[in-house]
Every structure is written in structure tokens, then in C-alpha cells.
Amino acid sequence: AALNGDNLEVIGTGFTTTPSDHEVKLNNTACPVTASTTTKITCTLPDGPGGVSPVYVSVKDKGRAVGDVQYTYNPQITSFTPSAISLSGGKKITISGKGFSDSANVIVGSKPCKIISRKLNEIVCFAPPMNAVGNHDIEVMVKGLKATSGTKLQYVTSTVVITNANVTKAN
After folding, report:
1. What angle is formed at CA 34 by the lines to CA 31 and CA 35, rounded to 5 degrees?
2. Which of 31, 45, 84, 149 could cross-link 24 (Cys pair, CB 3.0–4.6 Å)?
3. What is the mean pLDDT of each run of 10 residues along the chain (171 residues)?
4. Nearest to residue 124, comparing CAs of 160, 97, 162?
5. How far apart are CA 46 and CA 57, in angstroms?
């Protein structure tokens, strides 16, 4: 899957050999043109939300290109912290990656992770509790597309145990 900074090649006809003659957009986000021939335009993918985007091309003195071409920006998880949490959950997980959106959802194992904040490249959520020690995938869902972590979140037995609570009178 492509990430921002990778190149997108748009194939067609009627282009020019001067890169500055072209404007490429994915939805309404500019994809800066770096090279062009009469049949191919190369642009640098911008950061954007995961999902399907129409590709729009305009050529100087020729207008907007016709054609129904779409680009799918697949979300990706590049890392997350912490790597281990207790079975009780409730700890913040910070997930870094690309192609997230304000509608992204996170699943840990098979349980939803309560969202605290969402950005294009970071999601923070509260880890759900689990019933048993083990390793679980983290998945980010964006507009029907799924990104799965390359490593698993480890759930461990808590090292903190409360055995009692007593009230004492203040003097």
C-alpha cells in the first residue's frame, strides 16, 4: 500500500512533457506533480484519509481531463504504544500510521477501543479489558478499509492488586 511521499502515476493521453502544466488532485487535495510525459503524470502522494478518492487532472490550456479514475488510499499502522497492558484495560493506546480519519474506529482483539482523539496519522483510545492473558491485533477501520498492526498488543496479568480499602478517622 502506498503512503504519503510515495508516487502516484496517472496514465492517459493529451498530457504535456512540462510537469508544471498539470494539476492533479485526489478529492480536493493536491498531489504535487514531479514529472510528466504525453501519456503519464507522476505526482507525490499527499497525506490524506483512508478511502477511495476520485483522481482529477487538469492540463494547462486544455482543461480538465475526462475519465472515471479512482485511487484507494489504504490506512496503515506503523507503530503503537504501549506494547503491553494489564487485563483490566483502560490504559491509553497511541496508534501511529497513515490514512486515518475522523471516522476511524479501532478494534483490539475483537473489542472496540474507546476513541479519545483522531488525526490523519495518530489515534488515541482506551484499551478494552480482556478476559485472559494473550496477544491481540490492533485494527483501524476507515471507510470499509482495514489496517492491522504488524505486532500484537500483549495483555498481561496486572502487577497491581487491591485487596482492601479501609476508612480511618481524621484527628
Report:
1. 120
2. 31
3. 73 96 92 96 90 93 89 93 94 95 95 96 96 95 94 86 82 74
4. 97
5. 15
Q: Tell me the pTM.
A: 0.79
How many angstroms separate the CA atoms of 156 and 135, rounded? 9
| Per-residue CA distances from 70 to 52, 83, 98 (Å) | 6, 36, 19
In sequence order, the 6+-apart residues with CB closer than 8 A to the CB of 167 are none
Tell me the per-residue pLDDT of 36-50, one tens digit each, with 9 for 90 and over. Answer: 999 999 999 988 888
1 CB neighbour count, 10 Å cutoff: 13
For 148, the grid coordinates are: 492491522
